[in-house]
Amino acid sequence: MSDVTKLGACLVVGVLLLLTGAAAGWVINGWRMSAAVAGAQKERALDGQASAVAALADFAETASKVKEAADSYISERAAIAGKLDQLSKDLKNYAKDKPLPADCRPDAGRVRSLSEAVAAAKQAATR
Fold first, then answer.
1. pTM for the whole thing?
2. Which of 14, 32, 98, 106 could be 110's S-S partner, Cβ–Cβ 3.0 to 4.6 Å?
3. 114 within 8 A of 91, measured Cβ to Cβ
4. Rounded CA gap, 29 and 33, in Å?
């Protein structure tokens, strides 16, 4: 072989080795970047999971408070309704036992019963 042919062959082999090295570097860099992207995606997923867990805990706490308020409302409503029924019965019984004359003012018992009924009605209206 002549020197020019050997030089051309060496040049071709050198270029091929250079291209092979560049391709290998490209592939290795791609693997490294893929690993970095996967790590970033994992961190973002963990952050999303943490915020979702926090949101669910907040939702559960709020739902618990709403349930407590609803239970309190139901029990208070039943108690107030019971008081109103009893006051209504007391007022009717009192009116039957001691009817009010046409020209007379209500006595203390009637005023007390009416005051209690008005207070219970106001309390029920504010809730």
1. 0.44
2. 106
3. yes
4. 6
Look at the block and give the residue holding tokens 């979702």.
52
Would you say residue 105 lies in a domain? Answer: yes
Residue 87: Cβ within 10 Å count = 19
Q: Which residues span the domain enclosing 55?
A: 32-126
The model's pLDDT over 32-90, given as tens digits with 9 standing for 90+, comes to: 888 888 889 999 999 999 999 999 999 999 999 999 999 988 888 888 888 888 878 87
Q: How many domains would you assign to the chain?
A: 1
In a domain, 2, yes or no: no
Cα 13 to chain centroid distance, Å, stands at 67
In a domain, 27, yes or no: no
Dihedral in degrees, nearest 10, Cα atoms 15, 16, 17, 18: 50
CA–CA separation, 9 and 11 (whole Å): 5
Identify whether the C-beta of residue 78 lies closer than 8 Å to the C-beta of residue 115. no
Flag whether 3 is in a domain: no
